[in-house]
Design goal:
single chain, mainly alpha, flat, about 160 residues
Length: about 160
């Protein structure tokens, strides 16, 4: 005799059964797509302004990105071509990344310059070295047992 077990995760009162969770998952990804599309659209309008601002804030971020692309071309031509294509397609994201990087670099430079301005020396006291640092008692080594026939087994 064969026994079949049925597991129902949706419960008895769920009219959609297991398809309810699938529909909610699909709706979640559709909403996520439209949010990403909206952010990308807004970023595409703001990207030229972000690029100019990043040049004003710290131009070395853009130069380093260019050096990164050139290094990719030198190491692997296919990776360099792919990076250029992705930079062209994802220009708004790249502009946002360069803008973020220039802001972080500016902040790091200001923090390091403030740190370097503070040159207060810590007070210290010279301690004369003592001749007897630590005296330890001598360790007595126990005498070895005389050799036995049992020791011959391990030779």
């Amino acid at each position: 005799m064969t026994v079949y077990k049925e597991y129902n995760f949706g419960g008895q009162k769920n009219p959609l059964g297991n398809f309810g969770a699938l529909i909610i998952l699909i709706l979640f990804f559709v909403v996520l797509f439209f949010i990403a599309k909206g952010i990308f659209t807004i970023l595409s309008y703001v990207a030229p302004v972000l690029l100019i601002l990043s040049l004003i804030i710290d131009y070395t971020a853009l130069i380093d990105f260019g050096k990164f692309i050139v290094k990719l071309f030198k190491n692997n031509i296919l990776a360099g071509i792919l990076a250029v294509l992705l930079t062209i397609v994802g220009f708004p994201i790249v502009a946002g990344f360069i803008f973020f990087r220039s802001i972080v670099r500016r902040k790091l430079k200001s923090i390091t310059s403030e740190y370097n301005k503070e040159t207060d020396y810590a007070e210290y006291e010279e301690v004369e070295e003592e001749t007897e640092f630590l005296e330890l008692p001598k360790i007595e080594i126990p005498p070895e047992d005389p050799p036995s026939e049992y020791d011959d087994l391990f030779k």
